[in-house]
Amino acid sequence: MSRRTPRNAPDRLRTSRRLPGFLKTASVCVLIAGLLSPLTRTAVAATDATAPNDYCGGQCSDILPPGENGNATLAQILLNQVFGTQPDHAEDQLGPYAGLATGYSGLTDAKINTFFDDASFGVPSDQVASTEKPAGRSDVTIVRDKKTGVPHITGTTRYGTEFGAGFAAAEDRLWLMDVFRHVGRGQLTSFAGGAPANQGLEQQFYRNAPYTEADLQAQIDSAVAKNGARGQQALGDVNAYLAGVNAYIDASDSGRYFPGEYVLTGHKDAITNAGTIDHFKVTDLVALASVVGSLFGSGGGGEVNNALSLLAAQAKYGVEEGTKVWEAFRERNDPEAALTVHGGESFPYGAKPADAQGEALPDAGTVTQEPLVYDRTGSGATATARSTSSSAARTALGSAKRGMSNALVVSGAHTASGHPIAVFGPQTGYFAPQLLMLQEIQGPGISARGASFAGLSMYVELGRGQDYSWSATTSGQDIIDSYAVELCQDDYHYLYHGTCTAMEKIEQKNAWKPTTADGTAAGSYTMRAWRTKYGPVAYRATVGGKKVAYTTLRSSYLHEADSIIGFQMLNDPDYVKGPKDFQSAAQHINYTFNWFYADSQHTAYYNSGDNPVRASGVDAEFPVWARPAYEWRNWDPDTNTSAYTPAAEHPNSVDQDYYISWNNKQAKDYTTASWGDGSVHRGNLLDDRVKKLVAAGGVTRTKLVQAMADAGLADLRAEDVLPELLKVVTSSPVTDATAAAAVGKLQAWVTAGAKRTETSAGSKKYADADAIRILDAWWPQLVKAEFQPGLGSDLYTAITDSLPVDEAPSAGHGPTGSHAGSSFQYGWWSYVDKDIRAVLGEPVRGGLPQKYCGGGSVTACRDALISTLKQAAGLTAAQVYPGDDLCAAGDQWCADSINQRTLGGIKHGRISWQNRPTFQQVVEYTAHR
Question: What is the DSSP code (8-state) at residue 616?
Answer without folding.
Answer: T
